[in-house]
Design goal:
Layout lengths: L24 H8 L1 H6 L16 E3 L3 E5 L5 E3 L8
Antiparallel strand pairs: 1-2, 2-3
């Protein structure tokens, strides 16, 4: 999950604001559907120490790469900037 311990744990590129708790709302859905959530970048693999390289799906903007300044870059599914 994006919460696994590594030096950039609380960096902006590693944070996604979801409604609910770990069992309710969107947050609960992500925890209950980890495979699909990982495909959309809402969960990052334990081996991924650079979440800023993992594309995240946003329903309004499409695929994004989050940065450590709190912004994002539009990209394709593979993380190539648009």
């Amino acid at each position: 999950m994006r919460s696994h311990p590594f030096p950039g744990l609380h960096s902006p590129a590693n944070l996604i604001h979801l409604c609910g708790s770990g069992t309710t709302g969107c947050h609960g859905w992500v925890h209950n559907h980890p495979k699909t959530a990982m495909e959309y970048g809402w969960i990052v693999s334990m081996g991924e120490d650079h979440p800023e390289t993992v594309p995240v799906w946003d329903a309004h903007r499409g695929w994004l790469l989050l940065d450590n300044q709190g912004g994002y870059t539009l990209c394709d599914r593979d993380g190539n900037p648009r």
